[in-house]
Amino acid sequence: MKALYAQSGGVTSVINASAYGVIDEARRNGLEIYVGINGVTGVLKEKFLDATELDIEFLRYTPAGAFGSCRKKLKSESDIEKLFEIFRKNDIRYFFYNGGNDSMDTAWRLQMEAQKRGYELKVVGVPKTIDNDLPHTDHCPGYGSAAKYIAIAMMEAALDLRSMYVDSTQVFVMEIMGRHAGWLAAAAALGWVNGIGADIVLLPEEPFNKDEFIAAVDNVVSKKGHCAIAVAEGLKYPDGFFVSDMGFTDSFGNRQLGGVGFTIAGMVRSELGLKTHVAIPDYLQRSGRHIASATDVQEAEMCGRMAVRYALEDNYGVMVTMERISDDPYEIRYSSVPLNLVAEQTKMLPKDYFDKFTVTEKFFRYALPLIQGEFYPPFKNGLPDYKLLDLK
Amino acid sequence: MKALYAQSGGVTSVINASAYGVIDEARRNGLEIYVGINGVTGVLKEKFLDATELDIEFLRYTPAGAFGSCRKKLKSESDIEKLFEIFRKNDIRYFFYNGGNDSMDTAWRLQMEAQKRGYELKVVGVPKTIDNDLPHTDHCPGYGSAAKYIAIAMMEAALDLRSMYVDSTQVFVMEIMGRHAGWLAAAAALGWVNGIGADIVLLPEEPFNKDEFIAAVDNVVSKKGHCAIAVAEGLKYPDGFFVSDMGFTDSFGNRQLGGVGFTIAGMVRSELGLKTHVAIPDYLQRSGRHIASATDVQEAEMCGRMAVRYALEDNYGVMVTMERISDDPYEIRYSSVPLNLVAEQTKMLPKDYFDKFTVTEKFFRYALPLIQGEFYPPFKNGLPDYKLLDLK
User: Fold this and answer.
1) Can you give the CATH number for the domain in which A123 is found?
2) Confidence of residue B249 (pLDDT cuts 50, 70, 90)
3) A122-127 and A92-99: which strand pairing?
4) HAMAP family from the entry (chains A, B) (predicted)?
5) Up-side HSE of residue A288: CA atoms within 13 Å toward CB?
C-alpha cells in the first residue's frame, strides 16, 4: 500500500516545503511514500521516485518543483484508464496532488473515477499558487513569499527612482504576474508600511481607463516628481480586451504578448513626455526563495502535513484550506473543502481591498501577516546552496 | 573649511555604504562634512545637507542614492563659474564625488578648474558602478552586489524552468544591464559553482551571430530539454547595430527600445518553435540591497574612507582604486589613480574571461570573491527597514 505525491502547475518558492511536509508526515505515519516526476505526466509513464529513504532537508529551502511539475489536464479516457492501471499495479492508495485550480480539477476527477471504478483511493489536494486565487481558503501557500518578493522589489526600485528622477527616469513600471486576479500586483503597495511603495496599482479587477490613469500619474509626478507603478499582466479594458495586447507583431511575425509594462510605459511617455523604465520580474517573483516569507514556508509545510493527516482520518476528496481566525495577532486554523468546490474557480481581490489605483487598509491587514519573517536558505560560495535531484 | 560629498550617475545597492565611509571618516578627522543633494545638480542650487550630526547608520543598509543622484555633465562655462562661486562662498575645500565614468570626468574637470583659478580644492573620486567598467581598478563597488543578485535570480529562474519544461516553457531569457560591457551578464553563470546557472551568456564583447546562437540553444535543449539564457542589453551584431533595436514602433509611435530579451526570445520561438519566458530585472538588479554582497558593502564603505584619507594626505585629483593581491585567499589593497585616466574610459570583459556563449574558469576566479557573504538589512513589518531622508 503506497502513497503518491506529485507537483503540478506553475511552481512557487515554497512548493517543496509542502513536499517536505507530505513526505515527512507520511513517513512518520508508516506510509510507503513515492513521488511522481512531473506531476501526472510522469505518473502516466510510471516515473516514480521512492521517497521513503530520501534525504529531504533540502526541500525546506530549495525553490521551484524539485520533482518537476506539469501543465497537463486529464482529459482523455485512455489517460485515466492508464493512470488507474498504474495505480493498481503499484498498489497506490493515497494520492496527494500539490497545485492550483487546474490541479484540483485533476484531483477531483481522479477521486470520482476511483469511486466509479470501485478502486480504493484517497485523494487530498495540497494548495499552491502564487496567484492566491483558490477559493475557500484564506490564502494559498506560495503567495506570501511572492508578495514579499514583489513588495521588496518595488521598495528598492522606488528608492532608485527617487534618487534619479531629477534628470533621469521619472516613472517606473513593474509588470507583475496575475492574468485573472490582482493579489500579487496589490502586494507592490505593501512597502508603504515602511514608507515607500507603488504609487499606482493597476489591477485586473478594475477596468482600465487610460485618461484617468494618465491623470493619476500626472498628479503623482506633479506632487513628488516621480511615480512608481505596479501593473498586473491581466489588466483589461472595460470591454475585456487585454491591455497587454500591444497591437503589433515583432520582426519575426510573432504577436507581441505579455508586454503590458511596456504598453503602460509607452502611454506615459507619449502622453506626459516623461522618461520611463520597465521591470518584468517574471519567474524571479515566483521562485525567489532567497527572500521567502518564513510564515509562508511554515504554512506550506503544514498544508502538506495536514493533507496526510486528513487522508489518514478518511477525510478525502478534499483540499487542505486555511481559515483566518484573527489578523492581529495573526492566527489561522487548518481545515478542508471538497475538491469540486475549488476546481477551476478563481477568487478575485474583494472590492473593499482596492480603491481605483490604490489598495485599502483592509488589504494591508490581510496581506501583511503573510509576509512576516525571513527564512534564508543556506549559502555556499556566496550563493544559495540549492539542491537538485536527478529527474531523468 | 568644509568638505562636500555627492552622489552621481546610476545608483547601486551599496553607494550609500560609500557615503557612510566618507561621512564617518571625515567626522573622525574633524572635517565639517556637507552633502550635496542630487550631485552637482543640487550643488549648483546650493542644496546642501549638513552631515556633521546626521544619524548615518541607515546608509549601511539602504540602497540607491540616499542624497539623490544626477546625470548632469558639467559642460557650460557658466555652470563651472557658478559652482566655484558656491564653493568659495561656503569655503568648500574638499570634494568627494561618488560615481562612474562620467562622474570621474566631472571630478577631473573640477580639479583642473580649481588649479586654473588658484582655488585650493582637493577632489577625490569614490568609484561606483554596477557595470564594473571603470579602468585601473580591479572592480567597482556596486558590482559585487548586482552580480550576486543576478547569479541568484538566474539560479532560481533556472530551477523554475527545470520544473516546467516538460510541457511548458523550455527557454528562459533574462535581460541584464550593461550597454557596453558584459560584466553583469557574465555573472548569470556564477550559479554553476553550486550546480545551476545560465546555459548561454550573450555578451556585448562577442558580436552576435544568430545562426550560431540558435544552434547553441538547439544543442542545449536537445541535451537537457531546457535552456536558460542571459543577454546583456548592449548585445550587438558584428556591424555594431544593437540587437535590442526591435525594428518597429509601438502603438503610440515610439521606437521600441531595450527589448533585447524579447528579441532573443522571439528568435528562439520562430526558429526552434520552443515556448519562451522573458525576465527584465531592470532597477531590481542595481538596487537589490536585500541580497547585497557583504564583501561589496565593506569595500564600498572602505572606498569612501580611503577617499578622505587620501585627500588628507594631499593625494588628490585621484579616484580610489582596488588592486587585487590574491584570488584565494581573496585579498585587495586600496590605491589611487589620477582622475583623467579613468574619465570616460570603459573596461571591457577580458578576452580570456569568456568563450563564445559561456564564461571561463578565469571569470569565476575573478568574480566569486566579490559576491561572498550576506549582509541583510534590518526588517520591520516583514520588509526591509530602509530609511528615507527628506530631500526637498
Assistant:
1) 3.40.50.450
2) low
3) parallel
4) Phosphofructokinase_II_B2
5) 30
Domain count of the fold of chain A: 2
pTM above 0.90, yes or no: yes
3-class secondary structure, B165: coil
Cβ pair B4, B95 in contact under 8 A: yes
Q: Cα separation of B15 and B30, whole Å?
A: 23
Average pLDDT, chain B: 95
The CB density around residue A53, as the number of other CB atoms within 10 Å, is 7
Rg (CA), chain B: 22
Cell of A148: 514579499
H or E element: which one contains A60? none
**Interior CA angle at B318 toward B313 and B320, to 5°?**
85
Nearest to B163 among A65, A270, A281 (CB): A65
Mean local confidence (pLDDT), B42-68: 97
**Other CB atoms within 10 Å distance of the CB of residue A360:** 16
Known active-site residue B131: yes
> What residues of B are in contact with residue A148 (Cβ under 8 Å)?
382-383
Task: Give me the amino acid identity at A32.
Answer: E
User: Cell 483540499, residue?
Assistant: A319
Query: Rounded to 5 degrees, what angle do the CA atoms B6, B11, B16 make?
Result: 55
Percent of chain B with pLDDT over 70: 96
3-state DSSP call for residue B375? coil
Interface test with B, best of A249, A280, A385 (most B CBs within 10 A): A280
Q: Which of B131, B133, B199, B296 is catalytic?
A: B131
Is the separation of the CB atoms in B58 and B66 below 8 Å?
A: yes
Query: How does residue A247 score in pLDDT terms, banded at 50, 70 and 90?
Result: low
User: Does residue A390 sit within a domain?
Assistant: no
**Does residue B365 have a known ligand-binding role?**
no
Return the minimum-mean-pLDDT range out of A241-245, A280-284, B70-74. A241-245
The 10s digit of each residue's pLDDT in A45-60 is 999 999 999 999 999 9
Is A240 among the domain residues?
A: yes
With cell 503499484, the residue in question is: A90
Closest-CA residue to B10 (of B98, B76, B75): B98
- pLDDT of A254 reads 44
What pLDDT, on the 0 to 100 scale, is given for residue A251?
Answer: 45
CB within 8 Å: A383 and B193 = yes
Shortest alpha-carbon distance between residue B273 and chain A (Å): 11
Can you tell me the distance from the alpha carbon of A72 to that of A48, in angstroms, rounded to the nearest whole number? 17
Contacts of A251 in chain B (CB under 8 A): 246-248, 263, 266
Q: Is the pLDDT of residue A92 over 80?
A: yes
Element (H, E) at A231: strand A227-232
Among A284, A285, A296, the strongest candidate for a mutation testing the B interface, having the largest count of B CBs within 10 A, is: A284
State the nearest Cα–Cα gap between A80 and chain B, in angstroms: 18
The interface pTM score, or ipTM, of the predicted complex is 0.96
- Tell me which residue range forms the domain holding B110: 2-129+136-142+291-344+373-384
Higher-confidence residue of B343 and A17: namely A17
Between CA A377 and CA A62 the distance in angstroms is 7
Q: Report the alpha-carbon distance of residue A154 to residue A157 in Å, rounded.
A: 5
User: Residue A283 in contact with residue B161, Cβ under 8 Å?
Assistant: yes
Set of chain B residues whose Cβ sits within 8 Å of the Cβ of A385: 194
Give start and end residues of each alpha helix (H) in chain B. 15-28, 39-43, 77-90, 101-117, 143-164, 183-186, 210-224, 260-272, 283-287, 294-312, 361-367
Q: Do A236 and B251 contact (CB within 8 A), yes or no?
A: no
Residues A149 and A24 in one domain: no
Q: Answer yes or no: do B152 and A388 touch at CB < 8 A.
A: no
B56 annotated to a ligand binding site: no
Position A119 in a domain? yes
Same domain, residue pair B283 and B295: no
Neighbours of A92 (CB within 10 A): 22
